[in-house]
Amino acid sequence: MNLLRDNELIYGRLLTVEGVHLIERYNKALAAFGLKPTQLSSFEIDRTGFSPQVAEELGDYSYLDPYEVNRRFIILTPAQIELPVVHTAFSNTSQLMYEFLSRNRRAIDALTIKDVIYGEIEDSVARVEDIEDLLSINQVEFRVLSAEDVLGKAAELGRLADRLKQEPEAWRDDAMLSRMVELAKVCGDIRENALVPDQVIFRHNAFWTSHFGGLYVFVDPDMTTVISDPSAPGFRRSRPWQVSYLSINDAERVFDFLLSTGRLDLPRESWLDQSGYLEHRAQMTMRGLIRRIDPGADPARIDKVWLQTWIHNHADEVNRDGTFPFLNAAKREAVQTGRIDLNEIDPARRFLLVRAKPEHPDAWLTNMLIADFVPDDFMSRYVFNKQTFYKDYEGFDEAWRGHVVDMLKTNYLSDKAGFRARLYGLAD
């Protein structure tokens, strides 16, 4: 993973924490969680406050996610809203943190001047034992604390201020007035500085989770759909009138679900031509074939001329696999007819031709699921399905790891927004 880290393909774009006061604040939050303080003089954090360096020091990459539910967070600065989330068991952790930080920006701005904010994203279960536990999570609540209890003191000052306004004789209570002065020294003028977050409860909608080997939950008005391995505990066990269970191994049923619920952008020349989507899939397909059929090939030599020669020399293997010829035929059909008829296509191959409907709220999650069915497209997996990408990467030899990193740097890192907009129609 060092090559990925060196090229900011894992733990990239994090915020460096240095300076005695910030590290002291971070350690106060760690202590509140019952964890050892860091001895590092500098480390990096993501949107939730997770630090890969602190995780290595503690020997625990789940130090902010001990049971992979009720995720902990540490907020040192409102600037964390701009950071990615690099370690989580739920795909929507990043969005939930973003909503909390954006909806409570004024309070977080004021609080982090004086204190560190920490707590948990609490839901209705303490541990996940089966699928039903996951389905019971309808909303989450941010339980927010601060090391110096600025939050508690602001709340107390607010109560005393209300009492002063409502009780005619309260101004004669010297002890109360002294306490208000003492609290104001810590909190400032709470009429101007909003120190208590306004919104702490958020909906928990569609998501992917790492539980049970990876599980998707999609929420529609009349039905919730679970897509996972059938061996997951609780699969098809309860509430058939409310929950539909699909095997992740059943490509046809998964595709039909995404199509029938309006989550797919079907292959039409109107977007295929502009995006270069099929060309991208073909390029990824050929790299997967080369790695499997000719593992001794030097991927650094791959260019258009080299690839044509390789295809000619391995025509039998390419035709036997069939995916590359299939994509070429699909492209011709799209040019000639303006669309591609999916009815006669093997269900697993249909995923090569579609993308998530960009305007659908579940577009990112849908693209993540599609990437599960397109194992050779390591670029799509990196963009939408990093957990799976990292597992794939571990199985590559050094030459292919270098090639994958070069491809991602050249084609994705150089213009992330442009890549996502061109291929997937997604606006940042």
SSE layout and pairing:
Elements: H1 2-6, E1 15-18, H2 20-32, E2 42-45, H3 52-58, E3 72-75, H4 93-103, H5 105-114, E4 117-122, H6 131-135, E5 139-146, H7 150-166, H8 174-187, E6 201-203, E7 207-209, E8 215-219, E9 224-228, E10 243-247, H9 251-260, E11 264-265, H10 269-275, H11 277-293, H12 304-313, H13 315-321, H14 323-337, H15 347-350, E12 355-356, H16 363-372, H17 378-384, H18 386-394, H19 398-411, H20 416-424
Parallel strand pairs: 9-10
Antiparallel strand pairs: 1-2, 3-4, 4-5, 5-6, 7-8, 8-9, 11-12
Helix pairs in contact: 7-8, 11-14, 16-17, 17-18
Q: Determine Rg (CA atoms, Å).
A: 26 Å
Trace the largest sheet across and list its strands.
3-4-5-6
Biggest sheet overview: 4 strands, antiparallel
Percentage of residues in strands: 5-15%
The coarse silhouette is elongated
N- and C-termini, Cα separation: 28 Å
State the helical fraction.
40-55%
**What's the helix count?**
20
| DSSP E strands, number | 12
Low-confidence stretches: none
SS class: alpha+beta
Q: State mean pLDDT (0 to 100 scale).
A: 91
